[in-house]
Specification:
There is one protein chain. Helix 3 runs antiparallel to helix 6, helix 3 packs parallel to helix 7 and helix 6 packs across helix 7 (324-337). The strands form five sheets. A five-stranded mixed sheet has the order 17-8-6-3-18, with helices on one face. It has a four-stranded mixed sheet with strand order 4-5-7-16, covered by helices on one side. Strands 11, 12, 13 and 14 form a four-stranded mixed sheet that branches. It is 25% helix and 24% strand. The chain has helices spanning 2-12, 23-34, 72-83, 131-142, 266-281, 311-320, 324-337; strands at residues 46-49, 56-60, 91-96, 99-100, 105-107, 110-113, 147-148, 152-155, 190-196, 206-210, 217-220, 223-225, 232-237, 243-251, 257-262, 284-285, 289-292, 301-307. Strand 4 and strand 5 (105-107) form a beta hairpin. It has three domains: 2-66, no CATH class; 70-88 and 310-343, no CATH class; 92-301, D-Ala-D-Ala carboxypeptidase C, peptidase S13 (D-tyrosyl-trna(Tyr) Deacylase, Chain: A, 3-Layer(bba) Sandwich). The chain is an alpha/beta fold and 343 residues long.
Amino acid sequence: MRAVLAGLLLLAGSPVLARDPAPQALKRGIDRILDREVFAPAFWGVEVRDLRSGRVLYERNARKNFKPASTLKLVTTAAVLDAIGPDERLRTTVETAGRLDAFGRVLGDVYLVGRGDPNLSGRFTDGDRTAALEEMANTLWSAGVRRIEGRLVGHEGLFTGDRRGEDWSWQDLVWWYGAEVSALSFNDNCADLTVTAGERAGDPVRVGREPASAFYRVVSSATTSAAGTPPALTLTRAPGSNEVRLSGTYPIGAETWEGSAALEDPARYAATVFGEVLAARGIVVSGPVETSSVPLPAGVRVLAAHESPPLLEILKAVNKTSQNLHAEMMLRLLGARRPSSGS
């Protein structure tokens, strides 16, 4: 599919399309591009029409069926821009129906409510993954909140349906491109890992992880190998578990390996990390971390909020990095914003 996109860019910048050529000249010009040896493994489906008359000027395999793959993200993002608008911002809120008493206690459950923002992460904050959560924790502190006498609930009720894409294979689910979908998502629903070699062959490798949350574990049996040997790392995560296992070898002198492992139960992940951020800020949560998709209780009010960048900026990650999670979230957002048949 990348070859298709590259070819389209070549065509767009070609002098063949810079004027209104005769069909034969157009055909020769496009064929010269598509028949290049570098594109030999590719399958092309091309149709060029005159915008005024609709007349077909060139076609190759135009009636063949192709799997759209990630080019379908272009359709998704165009639909989002048209239906919702480029300037829309997505709000994540901290809400409660409980009373804030004179001792700084919220007397009731507190909800971290996701509304489809895919960038509760370090993408727009110079790599600071918890910046949005810290912003909301600081707002609570400034409002006088010192303790939550109830549960901390990650609320993901805006989106419905399976958390996984319908055509994702089980091998995808351990990696960032197979991360589960939720209206409350944090750090692309992944743990970001790094691996560097130890000092000597046989030493354990050094493993870094961000964020360093209790929500997941990393267990490594990987060891350092001699300089010049090929890396041989294996990363696994069993279904239903958030224990990431590293095994194999990594050579002295190799550049740092970086990878993002997908984690299960995104709303619980976000709420757990938010609880850790609250604790670091000095706000105690007395109850457990839980999740919910049912309607929020009557009488809830917003205690703190974070607004996303405009949708136009959010959608760049969908198309430029082919971000599957973000694309799925935008599709669910379209569904959530669709007017009901009775409206």
